[in-house]
């Protein structure tokens, strides 16, 4: 009897040590997330922008903290999917922990240089390469890492601004964007990352900045054709890259169809309950045309208004999603994210 109890205890003790070991290993081999691109995935690199001014961050973390939203953005949800903390923005790399990866994304930037000041994606990848050269991450770290890449929206904004809204020759521009993106994706893989999630282009014709012209009544199809063509071409390029590599390194995140399907669902709910907010209307707006979300006058008085319930909005302001918007898009992307699984997840 005594002998039996003892052996049960030994077994339990053994189990305890085995479990602890597994847990310890997992912590060491934790996946890291490296992020490249624009404001849809930036979590704090744009230090002199509206992302650090009220009312940004009112939902999360409660004060402005560098996100172009009232709360979490796509990066935060993907990090939570990977069961890690959202990676440190590159600008804070020396003062914060780096074991969850680094976020190089910068609001307003693109694949090429844009009207905004900030590192284009090539320069962001250069910064990543420098960290690798400094041996901050090992080869094994990189092999079990995930990269998240999202850009092109600001490239099109720059193109349209330069051409005063004309979409003539836009197909040639799409082709050159995809070519550069393809080079960037190959480069990230050659730096050692084996899982790379690439955002397709959101329907730019649905952005409040554009739909304002229809009093937020409907998306403008000619602009959505730009997104459709871009997404189609990017998807094809990524499929060819995977084929060439003989393994599914690249995973596309279909922002185009997920935005549209969330908007359609929200429109439908509203047709059943007219007290709900129009999902094409932004939560935060300037009080008149000359003001924008976050504007203050010379005496510091607010010149913008907020919706009653940011938590039921889709758009935060003219071009960005609210936390609710991102959460709902993330749930639509979930089945694609399953393809990011590594042995470590
Ligand atoms: C961070 O540290 C590295 C070396 O440890 C140094 O070269 C770099 O200038 C520092 N960057 C910042 C922003 O302080
Ligand atoms: C990225 O920015 C750098 C610095 O401005 C510039 O030299 C380079 O040509 C840009 N790359 C692309 C692909 O536009
Ligand atoms: C999209 O692609 C189609 C077919 O290739 C083309 O006819 C159309 O002009 C393109 N539209 C835009 C906005 O790029
Ligand atoms: C990831 O999950 C999918 C679906 O569950 C599975 O088919 C695939 O083999 C998994 N890949 C890896 C690398 O574990």
What does this structure look like?
The protein is α/β, with parallel strands linked by helices. The chain has one domain: SGNH hydrolase (Rossmann fold), CATH 3.40.50.1110. 42% of the residues lie in helices and 9% in strands. The protein has ten helices and eight strands. It has helices at 2-28, 74-81, 121-133, 139-143, 153-162, 170-190, 208-211, 221-245, 255-272, 323-337, and strands spanning 33-37, 88-89, 101-103, 146-150, 195-199, 250-253, 284-286, 304-306. It has a six-stranded parallel β-sheet, sandwiched between helices. Strands 7-8 form a two-stranded antiparallel ribbon. It is globular, with a radius of gyration of 22 Å. Residues 18-27 have low confidence and may be disordered. The structure holds 2-acetamido-2-deoxy-beta-D-glucopyranose (4 copies). It comes from Phaseolus vulgaris (Kidney bean). Keywords: Hydrolase, Lipid degradation, Lipid metabolism, Signal. InterPro entries: GDSL (IPR001087), SGNH_hydro_sf (IPR036514).
């Amino acid at each position: 009897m005594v002998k039996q109890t003892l052996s049960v205890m030994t077994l339990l003790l053994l189990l305890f040590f085995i479990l602890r070991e597994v847990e310890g290993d997992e912590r060491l081999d934790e996946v890291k997330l490296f992020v490249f691109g624009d404001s849809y995935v930036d979590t704090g690199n744009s230090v002199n922008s509206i992302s650090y001014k009220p009312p940004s961050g009112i939902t999360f973390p409660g004060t402005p903290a560098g996100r172009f939203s009232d709360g979490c953005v796509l990066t935060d949800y993907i990090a939570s999917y990977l069961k890690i903390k959202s990676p440190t923005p590159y600008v804070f790399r020396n003062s914060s922990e780096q074991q969850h990866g680094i976020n190089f994304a910068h609001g307003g930037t693109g694949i090429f240089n844009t009207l905004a000041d900030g590192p284009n994606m090539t320069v962001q990848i250069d910064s990543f390469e420098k960290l690798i050269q400094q041996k901050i991450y090992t080869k094994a770290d990189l092999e079990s890492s995930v990269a998240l890449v999202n850009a092109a929206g600001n490239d099109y904004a720059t193109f349209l601004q330069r051409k005063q809204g004309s979409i003539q020759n836009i197909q040639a521009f799409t082709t050159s964007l995809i070519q550069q993106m393809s080079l960037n994706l190959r480069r990230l893989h050659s730096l050692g990352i084996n899982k790379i999630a690439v955002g397709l282009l959101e329907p730019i014709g649905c952005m409040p900045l554009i739909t304002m012209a229809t009093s937020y009544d409907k998306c403008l199809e000619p602009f959505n054709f730009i997104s459709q063509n871009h997404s189609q071409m990017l998807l094809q390029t990524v499929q060819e890259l995977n084929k060439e590599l003989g393994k599914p390194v690249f995973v596309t995140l279909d922002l185009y169809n997920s935005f549209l399907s969330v908007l359609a669902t929200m429109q439908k709910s509203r047709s059943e309950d007219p007290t709900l907010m129009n999902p094409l209307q932004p939560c935060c707006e300037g009080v008149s045309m000359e003001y924008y979300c976050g504007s203050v006058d010379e005496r510091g008085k607010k010149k913008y208004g907020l919706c009653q319930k940011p938590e039921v909005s889709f758009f935060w302001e003219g071009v960005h999603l609210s936390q609710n918007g991102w959460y709902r898009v993330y749930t639509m992307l979930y089945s694609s994210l399953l393809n990011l699984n590594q042995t470590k997840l």
